[in-house]
From TrEMBL:
Belongs to the major facilitator superfamily. Sugar transporter (TC 2.A.1.1) family. Residues 19-468 form the Major facilitator superfamily (MFS) profile domain. Keywords: Membrane, Sugar transport, Symport, Transmembrane, Transmembrane helix, Transport. It is found in: Membrane. This is Major facilitator superfamily (MFS) profile domain-containing protein. The keyword Magnesium does not apply. The chain crosses the membrane at residues 12-33, 53-72, 84-103, 109-130, 142-164, 176-195, 273-297, 312-335, 342-364, 376-401, 440-464. It holds the Pfam family Sugar_tr. It comes from the Eukaryota. GO terms for cellular component: membrane.
Length: 499
C-alpha cells in the first residue's frame, strides 16, 4: 500500500476527468427527467384532468421501469462494454423523451415515462461503474461522484425548464419540457464514442494492449499505469507477468455467466458483506425521504403557505440549487475526509432537519385558519437544510461506495442489484407519498422519515468500513472481518508480487 502511494500521483488526470464528465452527462439527462416532472405535474394534472392516483403513478412509474434497465445493465455492460452501454442508455432516453413530448393523452405519456425509466436503470448502473474503473484510488471519490453531480444539475435544469416553459400555453408548455430532454441524449450517444473503454473491462476481455494504452492516458505516470495494470490482471485471474500484446484468454469467466450465483447463492463472507453494504446504502438513500422532497416540493411549499405557481416553482429551483452546490462541495471532500465520516455527518444532519420539518408542518396543519409565520419559515428552512445535508454525504457516497466495493468480475452486476433496490425504494416513496400524507399527515410522514434516518445512521456506523485510498483490487481485504486473515491476505499478495 505504501509502495502504491509512492507511485500514484494524487493530481487528477485530465483525460480521466474528461471521460468521467462525458459519462456523467447520462446522469444529467436522468436528473432532468426527474426535476422537470416535479413542475410538469402541476400543468399535466390541469391539462389532462388526471386524478391524484394517476399523478402518483406518473411520478413513480419511472423507477419501477428502471428495474428492467438496472437488472439488464450489469450483464449488458459485461458483454458489450461500458462505453456502448452508455450509448444504449442514451438511445433509450431519446425515445422516451420524444414519446412524452408528443403524447396526446395520459396513456402515451405513461408509456414514454416507462421507456425513459429503462434508460434510467442503465444510466444509474453504468455511469458510476465507468467513472470508478477509469479512476486512480487517490482521485476515485471525486470522479465517481460526478454522476451524482450530474443528477443534481439535471434536476436543477428540470426545475428551471418548468419555470420558463410553464409560461407557454397549458397544452404546449409541459410537452416542450419533456421533448427538449431528447437533445442532450443524441449528443451524448456520439460524444461517448470519443472516450476510452474501461481498462478493467478490456482486461476482463483479455485485450491487454488496449487496456495498457488506456491506462497510460488516464494515469499521470507510466509507473502508475503499469502498477494499475498489474493489479487489474491479478484481479482478473491473468498472470501479472504476462506481457502479451495480443488477445489472451483470462482464467476467469468474464462474460457474466455464474456471477449471480457468486453474488446471491454462494457468496464468500466478504462478498456477502459487500452485498449487505450496497443494498443497505441504496435502500436508505431513498427510504429517508429525498424523493418526496424532490418530486413533491411544490406541494410541500404550498402546505407551508406559498400560494402562486411562479413562487412555488422558484422555491423549487432553490431546492435544486442547494442540492447541486452541496454535492459539488462534497465531491472535493470525499477523498479527503473519507466516505464513512461524510456519511455519518450527513445522516446526522438529516435526522435533525427531518424532525424539524415534521414539527413545523404539523404546526402549520393544526392552524389552518391562521398563518403561523415562524412555522411557515421553519418548514422552508428545514426543507433546504435537509437537502443540504443529504447532498453533502448520502447522495454522492451511495454511488461511489456501491460502485467501488465489489470485485472486478462482480462489479457491474453487483452494482445493478444495488440500483434495483434503489429504484424500488424510490418508486415506493414517490408513488405512496400523497396517500401517506392523507393517512398520517404531511408532518407525520416526515417524522417517519426521520425515524428511518436514525436506523440508517446506526446501520452505516456498524456495517460500512472506510474505503478511502484503497485500490479497487484491495476491497476484499477491507471487507474481511478477521484482522489476522486480512494481514495474511496482504502478505500473500506481497509474496505473489515479489514472485
Amino acid at each position: 500500500m505504501e509502495e502504491r502511494k509512492g507511485i500514484e500521483n494524487e493530481k487528477i488526470n485530465k483525460y480521466a476527468c474528461a471521460s468521467a464528465i462525458v459519462a456523467s452527462m447520462i446522469s444529467i439527462i436522468f436528473g432532468y427527467e426527474t426535476g422537470v416532472m416535479s413542475g410538469a405535474l402541476i400543468f399535466i394534472k390541469e391539462d389532462l384532468k388526471i386524478t391524484e392516483l394517476q399523478v402518483e403513478v406518473l411520478g413513480g412509474i419511472i423507477n419501477f421501469c428502471a428495474l428492467i434497465g438496472a437488472l439488464s445493465a450489469g450483464r449488458t455492460s459485461d458483454y458489450i462494454g461500458r462505453r456502448y452501454t452508455i450509448c444504449l442508455a442514451s438511445a433509450i432516453f431519446f425515445s422516451g423523451s420524444l414519446l412524452m413530448g408528443f403524447a396526446p393523452n395520459f396513456a402515451l405519456l405513461l408509456t414514454g415515462r416507462c421507456v425513459a425509466g429503462i434508460g434510467v436503470g442503465f444510466a444509474l448502473v453504468i455511469a458510476p461503474v465507468y467513472s470508478v474503473e477509469i479512476s486512480a484510488a487517490s482521485t476515485r471519490g471525486i470522479l465517481a461522484s460526478l454522476p451524482e453531480i450530474g443528477i443534481s444539475l439535471g434536476i436543477l435544469f428540470g426545475y428551471i425548464s418548468s419555470y420558463f416553459f410553464g409560461k407557454l400555453p397549458l397544452h404546449t408548455g409541459w410537452r416542450v419540457m419533456f421533448a427538449i430532454g431528447a437533445v442532450p441524449s443524441l449528443g451524448l450517444a456520439f460524444g461517448i464514442l470519443g472516450m476510452p473503454e474501461s481498462p478493467r473491462w478490456l482486461v476482463m476481455q483479455g485485450r491487454l494492449k488496449e487496456a495498457k494504452s488506456v491506462l497510460s492516458k488516464v494515469s499521470n505516470t507510466e509507473a502508475e499505469a503499469e502498477s494499475r495494470l498489474q493489479d487489474i490482471k491479478l484481479a482478473a485471474g491473468i498472470d501479472p507477468d504476462c506481457n502479451d500484446d495480443h488477445m489472451i484468454t483470462p482464467n476467469q469467466n468474464t462474460s457474466g455467466q455464474g456471477v449471480w450465483k457468486e453474488i446471491l447463492l454462494r457468496p464468500t463472507p466478504q462478498v456477502r458483506w459487500m452485498l449487505l453494504a450496497a443494498l443497505g446504502i441504496h435502500f436508505f438513500e431513498h427510504a429517508t425521504g429525498i424523493e418526496a422532497v424532490i418530486l413533491y416540493s411544490p406541494r410541500i411549499f404550498k402546505k407551508a403557505g406559498v400560494e402562486s405557481k411562479n413562487k412555488l416553482l422558484l422555491a423549487t429551483i432553490g431546492v435544486g440549487i442547494t442540492k447541486t452546490v452541496f454535492i459539488s462541495i462534497s465531491s472535493f471532500l470525499i477523498d479527503k475526509t473519507g466516505r464513512r465520516k461524510l456519511l455519518l455527518v450527513s445522516v446526522g444532519g438529516m435526522i435533525v432537519a427531518l424532525f424539524g420539518l415534521g414539527f413545523a408542518l404539523t404546526i402549520v396543519e393544526q392552524s389552518p385558519d391562521q398563518k403561523v409565520v415562524w412555522a411557515l419559515w421553519l418548514s422552508i428552512a428545514t426543507c433546504y437544510i435537509y437537502v443540504m445535508f443529504f447532498s453533502i454525504g448520502l447522495a454522492p457516497v451511495t454511488w461511489v461506495y456501491s460502485s467501488e466495493i465489489f470485485p472486478l468480475k462482480l462489479r457491474a452486476q453487483g452494482a445493478s442489484i444495488g440500483v434495483a433496490v434503489n429504484r424500488v425504494t424510490n418508486a415506493t416513496v414517490s408513488m405512496t407519498f400523497l396517500s401517506l400524507i392523507k393517512a398520517i399527515t404531511i408532518g407525520g410522514a416526515f417524522f417517519m422519515f426521520g425515524g428511518i434516518s436514525v436506523l440508517a445512521w446506526i446501520f452505516f456506523f456498524f456495517f460500512l468500513p472506510e474505503t478511502k485510498g484503497k485500490s479497487l483490487e484491495e476491497m476484499e481485504q477491507v471487507f474481511t472481518r478477521n484482522k489476522k486473515s486480512r494481514t495474511v491476505d496482504m502478505e500473500s499478495q506481497i509474496k505473489n508480487e515479489d514472485l
